[in-house]
Write a structure and sequence with these properties.
single chain; alpha+beta; 2 helices; about 20% helix; globular; ligase; ATP-grasp domain-containing protein; ATP binding; carbamoyl-phosphate synthase (glutamine-hydrolyzing) activity
């Protein structure tokens, strides 16, 4: 998730993370170079699964709530974690 000042937060990573050059037949979202650990987005599936939404609530950064706040002009450094009540999303 990215805000209008170009801050980014990754709320939940997707389980299908494969080394560079390996294709499982499913949509690959991230590639990891096994030589140096560099992570590159090579294809993004914008669909949010139920498990991603559950994980976002469990971490204190609910996707829908944060998206609503960003859509009205808030930035990630203004959105506090629902669990800690003090850690910003831009932490």
């Amino acid at each position: 998730m990215r805000d209008l000042t170009d801050n980014v937060v990754i709320i939940c990573s997707i389980e299908n993370v494969d080394p560079m050059g390996v294709h499982t037949g499913y949509t690959i979202t991230f590639a990891i170079n096994p030589e140096d650990g560099e992570v590159v987005v090579i294809e993004m599936n914008p669909r949010v699964s139920r498990s991603s939404a559950s994980a976002s609530v469990a971490t204190g950064f609910p996707i829908a709530k944060m998206a609503a706040k960003l859509s009205v002009g808030s930035t990630l450094d203004q959105i506090l974690n629902d669990i800690t009540k003090k850690t910003p999303a831009s932490f």
